């Protein structure tokens, strides 16, 4: 059998270095230990600092390393298994929900979310901010987008702001009959506000879980949950994970 074009491409230098560094992490470093600075590491392994950074970024993406503010690059602990709610949990805020509601306000949703909800791009929605903590560590931040039609009696609630308002919005959402949900997962980078909520640096790798909740014959709410990719290993219920391929990826 002939050699394909892909098989003939040599292994990138950074990938070989990533393998060498991974072996060094296993044999020479303990969890939480700070790595030497980039200049010293580049000198030790005889590579350019640009190559070293690529290898370190790959190991961070794989959850082997963490970049910590004011500390540097440290060896990461094993990923924490985080269960992503199955259909049995129902609406956000239902009994057994691991999320903590923090705030709620009204604003226009991102265009992609408005499309998922089937509403006009300029139509305001209720946005509930939630966080999830595991083992005392923030592991995820969530924005639940809820159109006014899903919470028609919300105007009667006397909770102007804060967690009380957020919980009230979710309670009203639960009045609607739950019909199911679907989810998709993709890799992303933490924006500034996500990074603050998760105690990471902007641009850190995250897992973006988009969940559509169905009720009232349509999409009643959309959740955009951002999980720390460096510390989280997501587990799913029996309904599995929806996998999407963009046209560009299919072409490659």
TrEMBL record:
InterPro entries, A to Z: Bact_HTH_transcr_reg, Chorismate_lyase_/UTRA_dom_sf, Tscrpt_reg_HTH_GntR, UTRA, WH-like_DNA-bd_sf, WH_DNA-bd_sf
TM spans (from-to): none
Domain HTH gntR-type, first and last residues per copy: 11-78
Signal sequence segment: none
SMART domains referenced in this protein's UniProt entry, alphabetically: HTH_GNTR, UTRA
Keywords assigned: DNA-binding, Transcription, Transcription regulation
Protein name (record): GntR family transcriptional regulator
Species: Streptomyces koyangensis
